[in-house]
Structure formats: structure tokens, C-alpha cells
């Protein structure tokens, strides 16, 4: 009986409820912004070892729900990322906007997708993003060699499916009905 | 996974326009980003106020995470210490006995130093630190090595001040906000510190290599006098960094210099010290020509 009654409470919780509009719209933006902030807080790194979590979240949201964030989402989210990333200001705005367009283009070409193709597309974008970030900051005054970013690329590529799982979890949370309908 | 909903806009004007404007907005974002990038390359300080405000706003959660980081490290150290305590204790007692003798000798040297300086009429400059603060966050996902300091203009931090830990030099203040400041770590590729070998003063430059190590470039080319294990300290030439601050230990020799490991790993340091920017003493006035020599 406890099992049945447990189901009963779930039903009671779900019935006559709807997801909150603010949470459904706001969670993607919030998670991406949190992803931009998080790598700085984990450790005081003396080498680029942490994945660019904000970008990974952004890509994961766009792959899971292509139309949820508008095409111009790279502008405000990139601006926020630029404030904390350490790259020259504007890098993320440019690269996130470009990656949105590229991802949209790839999706029209590859309508049928699975885990592997999505990961491969994301790997391409991640590698291009990290290398271009290095290129941009080298143009702006630094002179870091290419082998510095190899660990970061490997870590980012491996961690991407986990980020995808997290985003899927957030998507379920986002659409959980809990606001009472009248 | 099934393909997403049909993207064809068909004959609907409204659908056509909305698709068109979506893409236009996306391209516009890229163009705006390119513009910002050009501005920040031409004038790197253009957005420093904005960055300062942002790091001020996120300073309190960053302080909290810094405390969490510290607690985690202490926990691991305590577990390690449990196994090693006996051996460590014996070693420390031995070292303490040696250090007591050395400190007596050092005190004698210091007294003599002061006396000689008084004879030469040299004045000690004010070496007191400006502020003690935590490094609260860093740019862990970027190839640039910046860290955020939990003190700003409220504690008297000014642009250009060197930052050090008890172990050695950490970096220098680059931008200052209200309650936070941005520090350029010495491992960044844009950071160049004039150094000398602690033992005999071979002059060199220490430039960050981007991966946590430091590239030592000798000023005098020719035979490479460096050896593995040499300690490099700041030389103070050109001002800014106080001379004698330890910086790095050489780990690998190159043809025209060496690779070195940083002494004060910023991830291990809890609190850092912000010092006043050092100015080299003015050169002595030229000797007056003897009267009647011309």
C-alpha cells in the first residue's frame, strides 16, 4: 500500500498544477550564467585546466531545446561570460553568437540525431571555441603556445555528456508543474 | 531523436519575417561581439570599470567558495597528517634546533647591517603591507591568468601594487574595484618580472609560460650559468617589485635560459599580502667638480 499511496501523493501534487512561467523561461539563462561563474570559484588555477562550463551549458541547451533561447541569446550571455572569463572583452559575444548560427545550420542539415552525432558536433564546436579563445587572447597581447590548452580540450570534451545530463535534469525541473491553476 | 518541428515558413509572411529577423539578430550579435573585441584590443582598459563592478557584485559568494576551498584542503591535509605525524615531528624538531642557531646569527648580521646603513646614511623605505586579503576566484577556463583579490579601494589597494604570499611573489594588481581587485598572476604570458639568482645575482627576466611554469630568460647571452634548483628572486630593477622576493625554482635548463616552477602556488595560498609599489632609491647626486678645475 505505501507504494500506491506514494503514487497517489505524486498524482495529488501534479494534478491541477502547471509549471511556473518565470522558472520555465529563466532556468536556461540562469544555469548558463552560473556555468560562466563556476570555473573561477573551483580553484585558483595556475594553468587553463577547467572546462568553459558556461559555453558547454549554452551548447547543451541549444542542442536539447533548439528554439528555447532566441538566436540573439549569445549576446547577453556572452557579455556576462566576458566579465569573468579573462579573455578580451567581446570574445564570448562573438564566438557564442557564431556557434549559435553554426549549430542551427548543422541541425537543419542533420535532422535525425543521436547521442553520438550530438557529441561529435559539440566536440567540433568546443575545440574550435577553445582554440579561437587562445588565438584571440594571443592577438590581444598574450603569447601562450598551443600545447597549453590540450588538457582543457580533453577535459571539456569528456565532461560534455555530463553537462548534457545536468541540462536535461534542469529541463525536467523547469517543466515540473507546481503552480496551482485556478 | 526525432527532427524538431518543421522549419519551413511556407507562404506565411509572418513566419518568413520571424525566421529572417531571428537570423538577423544572431548575426547582429556576432557583429556586436566583433566590435567589442576590436575596442578591447585597441584599448584594453575600456571595460575595466564594468569588470570591476561585476567582480564587486560577485565578491561575497566568491569569498564563501574560497572558504569552502580552504576547508576542503584542510580536511585532506588533516587526513594526510594523521599518517605522517611521527616522522614530521622528528624532522621538525631537528630543523628547529638548526634554525635557532641560524636565527641568532641572522640577528647579528641584521644589527651589523643596520649599523653599516646608518654609516652610509641610507634610509629604509616603508615596507609595511597595504592589505591582507584572499584570492577569491580566478580565470580557470581561460588561457589568461588573472585572479580576483577580495580587497579593493576600500582597503587602500591601488593599481600596480605587487601581491605576494609568505612563500613568494604572486602577481601584481591590474584593475581595482570597490571591494575587489584583479591581479595579473606571474604565470600569465604577459607578466614579465626582472629577477636575479639569489646566490650571486645573475640577472634575468621571468616570463609566464601559460601552463603554470615560468620561462627564465637571461639578460647576458652566452654560456648558461644556471643550474637546476637555483632560486630566482626579484631584482627590483625598474621598480614595482621589491627586491629579494622569492619567485621560482629552476627545474629544467634550456639553451638560453631555463624553465622554472613557481614557489608560491596560488592555489595553495590562503591569504596574500598587498605591498606598496617599490620605487628604486634615487641615484646619488653627481660629484661636484673641484673648484678651479675648469
From TrEMBL, chain B:
InterPro entries: Cell/Rod_1 (IPR042177), Cell/Rod_MreC_2 (IPR042175), MreC (IPR007221), MreC_beta-barrel_core (IPR055342). Keywords: Cell shape, Coiled coil, Membrane, Transmembrane, Transmembrane helix. Residues 138-257 form the Rod shape-determining protein MreC beta-barrel core domain. The keyword Membrane applies. GO terms for cellular component: plasma membrane. Gene3D superfamilies: Rod shape-determining protein MreC, domain 1, Rod shape-determining protein MreC, domain 2. The chain crosses the membrane at residues 20-42. Belongs to the MreC family. This is Cell shape-determining protein MreC.
